[in-house]
Amino acid sequence: MMIKMTRRCGLPSMFKILKKDRLPGFLERLAGERQVFAPVKKGEVILIREIDSPSQVILEYRNAKESPKSVLFPQREALFRYRTEKGKAEVDVPAGAAKGRVLFGIRPCDARGLLLLDKVFGGGSSDPYYMEKRRQTVVVSLGCTDPNPSCFCLSMGGGPCSAEGSDLLLLDLGDRYIAEAVSEKGVALLEDQAFEKSDEKSLSLAEKTRKQAEASMQPLAKKGNLEEELARLFSDPVWKDLAETCLSCGICTFLCPTCHCFDLCDEASGQAGERIRVWDSCQFPLFTQQASGFNPRPTVKERFRQRIMHKLSYLPKSQAMTGCVGCGRCVTECPVNLDIREVMVSLSEGKAR
């Protein structure tokens, strides 16, 4: 057997087979116990949404238009509600989800992105809203056998069939999936009646499939140590050239699996109100504007530089993990075709695109 054995939570990885005709029953049993979020078709795009029926699930897809981070880190979330009456204030914190959750069929890049969110929201001053959802969530990822041309996860330390960030990894072998459990949560899922003992033929085919998927990806032609080069280039005119066409629309950050900036605002109505957390973006002009009117990042150049530096220099230093997992969403959805792959190659060479 050639597949690399992964270790997580002190457990060796375990392999079983899930025949495709047994998948609907498995999903139905999962949905009976938990909320299941999976790829579904909405119009012409694939999105990760809560399902009502296994028939909604689409697994023949390359990647969802949006990352699944909103399941754990909602775009808009009420942190608490308050009411004042006769000089007294009552504060009510919304209850957490009554049932556990399953993120099913997400891609390995998105599962790996959750590891960074875990570090950010789970380290130091732990965020209870994120962490409660995370503890209740099981991640079942689906390996990429036909990666998008815009994907570059392999160049960012991941891979199209990587199990990082997953509890259970599925890989399509035609009429069946091979399932690899890499955590205690994943091992528990393999106890379901839908799974069968794996065989050497399936393991060999899985290894061949993984190698073919990796071979189909074009590696980035980065030169030297990009992290060190970025520190040297902080004040370089190259940033103005690179950011020349950027609109500061923020679509790259909203679609990104790892971007996690947010703002807090109070919405009041009479004697009651609530404190809301909403997504924000370092690409927006008002993101760093102070009450005095001073803005330390007044132009597109500084904001574009912040995004790149945060992902590729600051986060590797503070979290020991890059802030880009190579999902390619910012490449395909940028309205002016700014390609972060070209930016990285240019910066590694110390020049503009």
Keywords:
353 residues, alpha+beta, 8-stranded mixed sheet, 11 helices, 14 strands, globular, disordered N terminus
Oligomer: single chain
Number of helices: 11
What fraction strand? 15-25%
Instruction: State the shape.
Output: globular
What portion of residues is helical? 25-40%
Number of domains: 2
Main sheet properties: 8 strands, mixed
Instruction: Give me the secondary-structure category.
Output: alpha+beta
For the largest sheet, list the strands in their spatial order. Answer: 5-4-8-9-10-11-3-12
| String of helices and strands | EEEHEEEEEHHEEEHEHHHHEEHHH
**Rg measurement, Å:** 22 Å
Low-confidence stretches: 1-12
Determine the mean pLDDT: 93
* E-strand count: 14
Roughly how many Å apart are the termini? Answer: 44 Å
In brief, what are we looking at here?
The protein has helices at 23-33, 108-122, 128-135, 184-189, 200-215, 226-232, 238-242, 251-255, 300-319, 329-333, 340-348; strands spanning 7-8, 11-12, 14-19, 34-42, 45-50, 76-85, 88-92, 100-106, 137-142, 168-172, 176-181, 195-197, 262-269, 272-279. By secondary structure, the chain is of the alpha+beta class. The strands form three sheets. Strands 5-4-8-9-10-11-3-12 form an eight-stranded mixed sheet, sandwiched between helices.
